[in-house]
Design brief:
single chain, about 230 residues, alpha/beta, Rossmann fold, five-stranded parallel sheet, two-stranded antiparallel sheet, 8 helices, 7 strands, about 45% helix
């Protein structure tokens, strides 16, 4: 275990919950950061505390390593974004070949603010759930983007941050398997029952893979990954 500290971008969803468990398994002190940017599925912010508390019950050592939680308001990002994640519009594909749930610059902004907070908190490692294997095609989720940003952040802040993306090259089924390896069935059930991925913020409908509308891209990815994970 690395005794240095880590900051995890933690939205309250499946991917970030798995990344938080991954970080707790590796670092002696772990803090979390969430963003309120006017997202349509702001209910994810309400799930964060429940998942954080649940991780401490899954593993007592994790509870001892889990540090403060931070939430930053980034309303300006929502104001400049005309997307289905920040407006009540139908989810469709754009002329650029991307779903209109893509919020331009979101992950770049998130990681920049995370680095600024990590700088103040004395944390070297920043952990995020970006993935380019089983995703919606967002360009700011690609490994090349994250590597380039790591260089820029370290140059701009005269630091040696390490950006970790443990899910970058695995699919959603393997993300479920990673959760099982980290915390057993208890962690899988916590993520399935309490995390939130649905872009529409639907917590009313319950499926075998968790809560959600069942039709948006986030639900499709999560459901398909669950079926492969369970061998169905």
């Amino acid at each position: 275990m690395d005794d240095s500290g880590a900051l995890v971008l933690f939205s309250g969803g499946q991917d970030s919950a798995t990344c938080l468990a991954w970080a707790l398994d590796r670092f002696g002190h772990v803090e979390t950061l969430g963003f309120d940017y006017g997202q349509r599925h702001a209910v994810e912010l309400e799930c964060r505390a429940t998942v954080r508390d649940g991780l401490g019950r899954v593993n007592g050592d994790w509870a001892a390593r889990l540090g403060p939680d931070h939430t930053l308001g980034l309303g300006a990002l929502g104001e400049v974004s005309d997307t289905a994640l920040t407006r009540s519009v139908e989810i469709t594909m754009t002329d650029q070949g991307l779903p209109n749930t893509f919020v331009p610059g979101r992950n770049l902004v998130f990681l920049t603010f995370a680095a600024a907070l990590a700088y103040r908190r004395g944390l070297k490692h920043i952990v995020a759930g970006m993935c380019e294997t089983d995703y919606s095609g967002y360009p700011d989720c690609r490994d090349d983007t994250i590597k380039a940003l790591q260089v820029a952040l370290n140059l701009g802040m005269e630091s040696r941050f390490v950006l970790h993306t443990p899910l970058m090259f695995i699919d959603k089924a393997e993300t479920w398997r990673l959760a099982e390896r980290l915390g057993g069935e208890g962690l899988v059930e916590l993520i399935r029952e309490e995390s939130h991925s649905c872009y529409l913020g639907d917590r009313e409908h319950v499926h075998d893979w968790g809560h959600g509308c069942g039709t948006c891209p986030a639900c499709d990815l999560r459901a398909a990954g669950w079926r492969r994970y369970r061998g169905g």
